[in-house]
Amino acid sequence: MADLAIETHGLVKTYGDTRAVDGVDLAITRGGVHGFLGPNGAGKTTTIRMLATLIRADAGTGTVLGYDISSQADEVRSRVSLTGQFASVDEDLTGSENLRLIAKLYGHSGKAAVRRANELLDAFGLSDAADRQVKKYSGGMRRRIDIAASIVVTPELLFLDEPTTGLDPRSRNEVWDIIRAMVDFGTTVMLTTQYLDEADQLADRISVIDSGKVIAEGSATELKASVGAGALHVRVMHRDERENARDILVRELGVDVERSADPQGLTAAIDDRGRVTRALSALDSEGVGLAQFSLGQPTLDEVFLALTGKPVAEAAVNEEEAA
Amino acid sequence: MSTYTGNQEGEPINEPAGPATTAVSTAVDMSAAPSTEAAPQADAIAQALANTERPPRPSALSTSVTFGWRALLKIKHVPEQLFDVTVFPVVMTLLFTYLFGGAIAGSVDGYIAYLAPGILVQSVLMITMYTGTTLRTDIDKGVFDRFRSLPIWRPSALVGMLLGDAVRFTVASVITAVVCWFIGWRPAGGIAGVAAGVLLLLIFAFALGWVWTFLSLILRTAGSIMGVAMMVMMPLVFASNIFVDPSTMPGWLQAWVNVNPVSHLVTAVRALMDGVSPGSDLTLSLMWAVILVAVFGSLTMWKYRDPK
Fold it and tell me: Of A172, A244, B141, B234, whose CB is crowded by the most CB atoms within 10 A?
């Protein structure tokens, strides 16, 4: 138990009639990134807020770094940091003032607080913006100051709640680099995200949550393996050729082929990669022109769809299989 | 090998079909956007993390004062928030003095001597309501999540906020006093008496602030907090002895005015500023302040664990 960063049993949080979190069991080891993946309203944030002792669980128990989240909340607080979904810094203050404020609240003297604030501003590339109000920061800078505020005193565990939501690709990549740097250092990161590629890129293990319940858990590879060997995506040149192409693929691959929302697209879950080449040659020899095709492991998107059964455009897997 | 197709909406992958046997990746090329904006430095971040210095836990007083510092910084950056504490008292004082002066006391000069301490109390108490809306805004913006996740004495964020407000209340008191002085108010207690009255007023205002912090934790919008706060303040401020001597009021109203904590406060402040002994009204005012902090401070901290 001591080497578990987070352990929960049957965590429940109810708001009115909705069970926002409906019996979540987690066992998260120390080190690395644990992804908490789910759509909006799945209960990710509520779970994180319970674990960070911001709200109290209605039922169930939880320990963070070995400390009980309700009876030893203060012990938890002194070891974890939280970067919330909305900027958890004071937008009226400057970047430097925000970091100094947090440093002072942790007990740094005025001088030490200034030193620490400058060190972090440098590291996060915010020195030029140090004396600007945070409300004048760009989205990416705001995220960076937010994460910087979370490591004013180095935490053992960092909760990151949707750290890249609403960021442009470049800022997103910067946040990913920051997260990787922290993990390299040895900080445990629990990351919520609704972006599957983010979980794929960063997380060692992933808990998939939907409607307040954890519906699957494993590494990205394991989760993907649970829905088959992979998927073939094909896009025909002309939409009236799709049916023809589908018949050929069904014949050659021996599996069902799904029509995607894209009127030119087809997707098939495949078990045997060897048949793909044959199927593609068949399409070619029968004169069906392809705009593009791709073959890969199922994406986490597909895993997610398979698990939740939510209707989404790019439905690629036709059977669900919870890990 | 895993692949990511770079889109979640099922958009087509706009790349020419190649002789690829594994998937085509459309991950956006991040390196293509060089910019003048400084980027985070991974090694510097690692170094910052490696500095695991953990200062001793600060005292409750120290964190409260730090939060008070935050309130002052906010005034520095958003000086508009001093608008309510400057304009509101001036308008109130001028309005009520000239509106009622002739009718109630026969002359403005005669009335100001009675009204000035009361209007001071009214100005400051009305301004305390903004504490609630400010806190609600803080909570909604998410910065309170950070404060509440810190290992500090929990009430310090709120205490600090109320300490910062004390600065605004002092500004309001000084401005009201100066306006009253220009109108013709010459308190017998002198500067010392006025200062003592203002001090008592600040103590009471700090205590009343906990009512609004509690409201801001149980109500969801700044508007509803203001609405409820107004409903609470109206009978406290207007059904009191701020404007008129209660002896002309009907019995039932006198009964309320005589138990109204604001009446005790006004009587005590009036006595201090007039340089006479405030007697039991001082004790009663302080007692009410203690009760407010005990009841609404506790309720606030109870709700603070799990706010809406």
Answer: A172
What is d(CA A255, CA B75) in angstroms, rounded to the nearest whole number?
68
Beta carbons of B30 and A309 less than 8 angstroms apart: no
Domain-embedded: residue B14: no
What is the Cα–Cα distance from B23 to B18, expressed in whole angstroms? Answer: 10
Residue of A247, A254, A242, A253 lying closest to A290 (CA atoms)? A242
- Whether B164 is in a domain gets the answer yes
A244 touches B at CB < 8 Å: no
Q: In this predicted model, what pLDDT tens digit does every residue of A283-293 receive, in sequence order? A: 888 888 888 88
Instruction: Please answer yes or no on whether B142 and A144 come within 8 Å at the CB atom.
Output: no
* Tokens, residue A79: 């070891």
> Which domains occur in chain A, in start order?
4-223 (3.40.50.300), 225-308 (3.30.70.870)
Domain count, chain B: 1
3-state secondary structure of A130: coil
On whether residue B35 sits in a domain, the answer given is no
Candidate from B17, B50, B52 with C-beta closest to A290: B17
Bridge partners for A296 per DSSP: A231
Probe site for chain A from B35, B49, B61 (most A CB atoms < 10 A): B49
Q: How far apart are CA B270 and CA B194, in angstroms?
A: 9
Question: Are the Cβ atoms of A78 and B151 closer than 8 angstroms?
Answer: yes
DSSP symbol at B9 = S
Mean pLDDT of chain B, nearest integer: 85
**Domain residues for B242?**
60-304
Residues contacting B276, CB < 8 A, separation 6+:
B188, B189
Q: Is residue B3 part of a domain?
A: no
Question: Are A91 and B141 inside 8 Å of each other by CB?
Answer: yes
Q: Which residues pair with A217 in a beta bridge?
A: A207
- B58 burial level (CB within 10 Å; 0-12, 13-18, 19+): buried
User: Tokens 């629990």, residue?
Assistant: A190
ipTM of predicted complex: 0.81
> What is the pLDDT, as a whole number, of residue B37?
58
Tabulate helix, strand, coil % of chain B (nearest 5). 70, 0, 30
Find all residues with CB under 8 Å of B96, minimum gap 6, and list them: B115, B119, B243
Q: What is the pLDDT of residues A8-61, one digit of tens each?
A: 999 999 988 888 999 999 999 999 999 998 888 889 999 999 999 999 999 999
Is residue A71 within 8 angstroms of chain B, CB to CB? no
CB nearest A87 (choices: B11, B43, B142): B142
Nearest to B22 among A260, A295, A301 (CB): A295
Mutate to test the interface with B, among A82, A86, A92 (most CBs of B within 10 A): A92
> Facing residues of A19 across strands?
A14
User: Measured between CB atoms, which of A81, A173, A185 is closest to B50?
Assistant: A185
